[in-house]
Specification:
Layout lengths: L9 E3 L2 E4 L2 E3 L8 H9 L5 E2 L3 E2 H6 L19 E6 L3 H13 L4 E6 L4 H4 L11 H14 L6 E6 L6 H17 L3 E5 L13 H11 L4 E4 L5 H11 L3 E4 L8 H10 L10 H16 L4 H7 L1 H7 L6 H8 L5 H11 L20 H6 L3
Helix pairs in contact: 1-10, 3-5, 5-6, 8-9, 10-14, 12-13
């Protein structure tokens, strides 16, 4: 097994990241509470859920929308991810992220959701290199030089030769413009989340760009898979997406394996209970009562996969609507300090789509 402790620590532009296993942007999930929990469990960097440029340009700091741009000292460095259609508005949205305190600006050219692609956003740009590169150029020109700009891509719209050519044209052009790194998901836009992520493509990309920073994404559901992707492809780091929802321990486990230690045992039910309760407490700082309860259901459902009776616990979390309900689930199912279980990589569910989060920004 590759010992990552002997490899180069991850650095994006002038931002020191360190351990090269980080938390990806997750639409509908990677808000401030989730990012803080991930950082406390070993993630060296995390990216906020994607935001629309038009939303950022128009948004006012209100209670209902404050969670989108909320950051804290504890989580730095933190990235802000942006998605949109028009180059000029995209750059203006990027500046709002800078003004809100995000350390790195990440451009989303990877979202495969039909509603997003249909509005000429996200993965749609992989089919129009000229517009994609104009977005990158305007964003890089607008964002202060000390703030790194990165790009998230899939390996193309589909597996045609034209799509491949477009990918490499955007990739090379982005680095020529001055982006500090590119994250590549090993699936196409048309694949969405179906079928395996093509890790061999990541190896090809890394060989193509040489010493420039490439992060990988796709099918990272265990700590070992994070190290395997780096070891097999030679990329500089990985961004854990669905594999980190309800399992922040994946980061500390990856650190242990990278240091040559055995895979840590899954957290006991008492350890899980402490984190699940703290996650809810952090959410209460951003979201009002009932809204917090219903919003946290999806996290409870994800946490339940580490419980030995996960089907029953999942059903219990699905009915949560307030703090009292949350505490009742913990009292009923986490009152005995039984051993936890590692999540089954074959049962990871589908990522909540960009549509869920983005719709609330329109």
């Amino acid at each position: 097994m590759k010992n990552l402790g002997s490899s180069r620590p991850l650095q994006i532009g002038n931002v020191q990241i360190g351990f090269p296993v980080v938390q990806a942007a997750l639409s509908g999930y990677s808000d401030w509470p989730m990012r803080v929990i991930a950082r406390r469990h070993g993630a060296s960097y995390a990216i906020c859920e994607v935001m629309l440029d038009q939303f950022l340009v128009a948004v006012k700091q209100r209670k209902r929308t404050q969670h989108f741009l909320h950051t804290s000292a504890e989580e730095h460095p933190v990235g802000g991810q942006l998605m949109g259609a028009e180059p000029e508005q995209f750059a203006a949205g990027a500046m709002k992220l800078v003004e809100s305190g995000f350390d790195i600006i990440d451009i989303n050219f990877g979202c495969p959701v039909k509603k997003v692609v249909g509005r000429c956003r996200g993965g749609f740009h992989l089919g129009q290199p000229e517009v994609a590169l104009e977005i990158i150029q305007r964003t890089r020109d607008t964002v202060p030089a000390e703030i790194p700009v990165t790009v998230k891509m899939r390996r193309g719209i589909d597996d045609t030769e034209e799509s491949r050519d477009n990918f490499f044209r955007i990739l090379e052009g982005a680095f020529n413009i001055g982006v500090a790194g590119v994250t590549v998901h090993g699936r196409t836009v048309k694949q969405r989340y179906v079928g395996p992520s093509r890790w061999a493509f990541l190896k090809e990309v890394k060989q193509f760009v040489g010493d420039k920073i490439i992060l990988g994404s796709g099918d990272l559901f265990t700590a070992q898979s994070c190290l395997d992707m780096i070891g097999q492809t030679g990329i500089d780091g990985v961004t854990v997406a669905r594999g980190a929802i309800g399992n922040p321990w994946i980061f500390s486990q990856a650190r242990a394996l990278a240091a040559g230690k055995p895979l840590p045992a899954p957290p006991s039910l008492y350890e899980q209970r402490e984190v699940i309760l703290e996650h809810y407490r952090l959410a209460e700082e951003l979201y009002e009562g009932k809204r917090c309860g219903t919003m946290m259901r999806k996290f409870g459902i994800k946490y339940s996969v580490m419980h030995p009776q996960h089907d029953e616990v999942r059903a219990a979390f699905a009915r949560v609507s307030c703090r009292e309900d949350w505490e009742a689930v913990l009292a009923a199912w986490y009152s005995d300090d039984l051993p936890g279980v590692h999540p089954d990589p074959s049962i990871h569910g589908s990522q909540e789509s960009c549509e869920t989060s983005v719709t609330s920004q329109i």
